[in-house]
Design a protein that fits this description.
Elements: H1 9-63, H2 73-83, H3 89-103, H4 113-120, H5 123-157
Helix pairs in contact: 1-3, 2-4
């Protein structure tokens, strides 16, 4: 009495498919619901971040007497989209300042590359670049003062 059990790959595959379908019926509705809840939570968090950045930009405009102008949706939409992903408070301030500068009627800045560039920078990278820029501005200011002093002395000699 030697019976062989026929275990073919198609029989195993069929068994796995039946088990998978059964598991899907048991857990998928809750998994899908959980996924939707998570998506809603993230969407709400991003919306709150956008509102916070818009409010900060408004405060910045009021504080610095900036008269806002209309800007292209092509610039505004990516700025709001990218900025909504920002978790760091200091970087959210940078997004607010960028928006304020883009809507400043005294400036002629309409460039959609700035939101993209800011979205690519980490906090450390941003502050490193800012530090280099500030050093350059300070050095230029000192050199300008020295040059002005030199010309003033030359005028006195004449």
């Amino acid at each position: 009495m030697n019976k062989k059990i026929d275990i073919t790959s198609s029989a195993i595959e069929k068994g796995l498919e039946i088990a998978k379908d059964f598991i899907d019926k048991l857990i998928m509705p809750s998994v899908e619901e959980t996924g939707l809840l998570l998506k809603d939570h993230i969407t709400m968090w991003r919306f709150k971040t956008q509102v916070k950045i818009l409010n900060r930009a408004n405060e910045y405009c009021v504080k610095h007497n900036i008269n806002p102008k209309k800007i292209s949706l092509k610039i505004l939409a990516p700025l709001l989209e990218y900025s909504s992903l920002e978790e760091d408070e200091e970087m959210q301030d940078k997004w607010s300042i960028l928006l304020s500068n883009l809507i400043d009627s005294e400036q002629n800045i309409e460039n959609n590359v700035f939101p993209y560039i800011l979205s690519q920078l980490s906090k450390d990278e941003f502050f490193s670049l800012e530090k280099v820029y500030n050093k350059r501005v300070l050095r230029f200011s000192k050199e300008q003062l020295e040059l002005d002093d030199y010309f003033a002395k030359e005028q006195i000699k004449k």
